Sequence to fold (70 residues):
Amino acid sequence: MKLSARNILKGTVTEVTKGAVAAEVRVDVGNGNVITSTITVASVERLGLAAGKDVQVIIKASEVILGVED
Fold:
């Protein structure tokens, strides 16, 4: 698989919560960091996502917003 995205993190699915159409997938990428992705239930099923499955989190964003406390 070749991608243009450069932000690729290896991780393990810790939880999948399915709704009627969308699902929330939580992925542990190490060092106490968890990334949550919302994808379709059809994609969850097509990819065979379940707790314990190794995945790659691919982040392709047009902007990144940073914030600080006042």
Remarks:
- The longest strand covers residues 7-18.
- Helices lie at 41-47.
- The chain has a mean pLDDT of 94.
- DSSP finds one helix and four strands in the chain.
